[in-house]
Amino acid sequence: MRNNKQEELTMADIARMAGVSESTVSRALAGSDLVAEKTRKRITELASAADYTVNEGARNLRLKKTKTIEVVIPIESHHRQHISEPFFLDLIGALADAIADRNHDMLLSKIPPWSTDKRSNALVSGRADGIIIIGQGRRRAELREFTRAHRRVVVWGAHIDDEDHAVVGSDNREGGRLAASHLLSLGRKRIAFLGDVSLPEIKLRHRGYMDALKEAGIAVDEELTFNAPFDSEEAYATAKALVESNIKFDAIFAASDVIAMSAIAAFRNAGVNAPQDVSVVGYDDIFSAAWYSPALTTISQSIHEGGAALVKSLFALIEGETVSSVVLQPKLIVRQSCGAHPTRT
Amino acid sequence: MRNNKQEELTMADIARMAGVSESTVSRALAGSDLVAEKTRKRITELASAADYTVNEGARNLRLKKTKTIEVVIPIESHHRQHISEPFFLDLIGALADAIADRNHDMLLSKIPPWSTDKRSNALVSGRADGIIIIGQGRRRAELREFTRAHRRVVVWGAHIDDEDHAVVGSDNREGGRLAASHLLSLGRKRIAFLGDVSLPEIKLRHRGYMDALKEAGIAVDEELTFNAPFDSEEAYATAKALVESNIKFDAIFAASDVIAMSAIAAFRNAGVNAPQDVSVVGYDDIFSAAWYSPALTTISQSIHEGGAALVKSLFALIEGETVSSVVLQPKLIVRQSCGAHPTRT
DNA sequence: CTGTTAGCGCGTTCAC
DNA sequence: GTGAACGCGCTAACAG
């Protein structure tokens, strides 16, 4: 057990205690075979008895590495964002696992690296070997400029043709198609879309929705697309207005589970029930989706694989390799809210 | 804009370009007034034109600091934990803000510092100036041993008398009391408790629940306490068993919102509706609580203040001061599930 | 006001 | 097999 009062031990201390030079200690602790088995064992035991650990900062300075990955994630404290929170936490967890597996640390930041904030660029200030950016959001221009200037950056989000940076994300267009065609397969014909099409991910989901309608030979009614930067409250209000209007609809494809839940609540308060009167499909498969009432039919993104892919791509970039973008396949999770199953299983 | 091919600039480069010594550059960039206003301006402009930033690693080595705080948080990827995920994400966000405000980086780890994993102890390996540990969970013994050996550690969780480390957390006992007495004020008399009492936080909530019953002069019926490490699925099953049993109850106090939601779903499927037939109060005020149907009455912990308090205490510890524990007051959030309001507002 | 010198803790030549 | 010397990039003490 360490003594609190004591100064932090240094390699020189261990060398002195062992009666050898610093170099030998360094080699022994690094497991080098340039040192005699016997002395190595003696030194490692001495070090662990003294509770000594190599100072990573000094080591990294010498090695010109940081063994640290920065993850930039848009957690907004003030207002609730559209992209659901549980999704982010799962992704952080997946990233933490994948980064720890490679013996690196994970620096978490809410400040984008292109911010003018002094300490913002972890790459240039030598605090990280690479950066993972979650969500392209609306800051496309800044992001592009940043990734043009820096390699060793990967992005989670939608794939857009003109990007020159590595992107990992799920196939949002296919996800939208899956959702809409499932509703169509249940006999629904007038499917309303609720989502903010100015976000690239959502735009692709909407495009997939239109693909499915086209495949089914159904004309797209623009009246059924509700395009707004929804938070729960606004989603509730929009759904309320929709159900009170004279627009006919028999299904909802919501661009997020949060929107879906809010819409269902608004409908119920107006006497319209899911899934009997209206089928609803959400997006994300957030934690509470399975335990909502009715349990939400939704599109699931493979978060764990996504996290692993992000980290794998970033390390390839760090090694100097060229990487191409990764597209993950979304999955349809059928529960109650679409009406395919009459009751909770 | 930086050139990718180019090696990272060093302070010596800037010194050469400016025709001064490294020391002068260092002083100029640090805003020292030991340097002439004119040369300082010239150097800062030169540096920013060259897109140079001080290497933090080298700086920190020299200064014997890391300007980094490690946050250890038990995100489990495999199974869904009881403590609700949105709560964690909010806390991470609050911590990120508070740490960034003090110009420090935040290292996020899932591995507890007392783990035998080589890189685990960020304090000893010089990767962090302090550690924030979220949740005492069931690892009380390890935690105690660790905090006994290391100052510069603060813990989020329940306050327990015999701890010798700094703890920040909300008053779980008061939270439990608030929940139960609210139910009692609505005329409910047989309140069931669902939660895992082996977790210190939950145990205190249960104690508060009993306090409220005692205050109201109602005998505690042990038959109404359901003690299990609930996940959603198990909570659903327990609620189902309860409603199908011949145990009489008219209210539920759930130790988490997730448990509350699962119970409400189970009741509904058995033809028992909240809040008409049974009043339900949850705990945490997670994101979806407001958008559940019925909207959940719950106990809210002041997460943002909690994050700020954790960081404040930790920095005090780092400065060598002595800190005492912080207790935050929980708040009752009244919505629909308890029956106090007939409809969504 | 500025430059020179020294060293933070470590890994890695190059000798022996 | 081991040690001495050097330098990673930076800041602080000391001169001038």
Low-confidence stretches of chain A: 1-5
Note the quaternary state here: homodimer
Global mean pLDDT of chain A:
89
Order of strands across the widest beta sheet of chain A?
2-1-3-4-5-11
- Largest interface summary: A-B, 73 and 73 residues
| Number of DSSP strand runs of chain A | 12
Give the CA-based shape of chain A: elongated
* CATH superfamily annotation of the largest domain in chain A: Response regulator
Distance between the termini of chain A: 53 Å
SS class of chain A: alpha/beta
In percent terms, what proportion of residues of chain A is strand? 5-15%
Please identify, by name, the CATH architecture of the largest domain in chain A: 3-Layer(aba) Sandwich
Order of helices and strands of chain A: HHHHEHEEHEEHEHEHEHEEHEE
Q: Which CATH class of the largest domain in chain A?
A: Alpha Beta
Number of helices of chain A: 11
Biggest β-sheet strands, sense, barrel of chain A:
6 strands, parallel
CATH fold assignment of the largest domain in chain A = Rossmann fold
Percent in helix of chain A: 25-40%
Radius of gyration of chain A: 26 Å
User: How many discrete structural domains of chain A?
Assistant: 3
